[in-house]
Amino acid sequence: MFECLILGDSTGVGAGQAINRRYAQQCDVQAVERATAAQILTWRKTGKDYGACVFAMGSNDPAGAALVTKLTKIRTSLCFRRVIWLLPYARPQAYTVSSVAARFGDETVDLNRFETRDRIHPRNYSQVASVLLR
């Protein structure tokens, strides 16, 4: 059976809800509003072997070396065959997240391509789900 995980902050919550409305095999969602990379590092691992994972994090952290270190720890602590990172709207954080994704050869989806009201959350998460489920 294919297993998937959505891990992260409020953009992960929204993406997870939109994916699970459209996807027959429900993805596990471990995401909460305002989650930081440091908080995510403390979350209990599920013990499942996920075929795919969407990482939605970085929006609530300052960009820079400390964020790279935390994201790298998260990425190396979870083994997935396919990882897709949602790049935050804030460009400094997006560049930081993108650098970690590139290091591991992971895919990225830039939230900046989706309409937003607050420069943090997409206006329509079903559009994000459509891109992620391709």
TrEMBL record:
Highest taxon of the lineage = Bacteria
Query: This protein is called what?
Result: GDSL-like lipase/acylhydrolase family protein
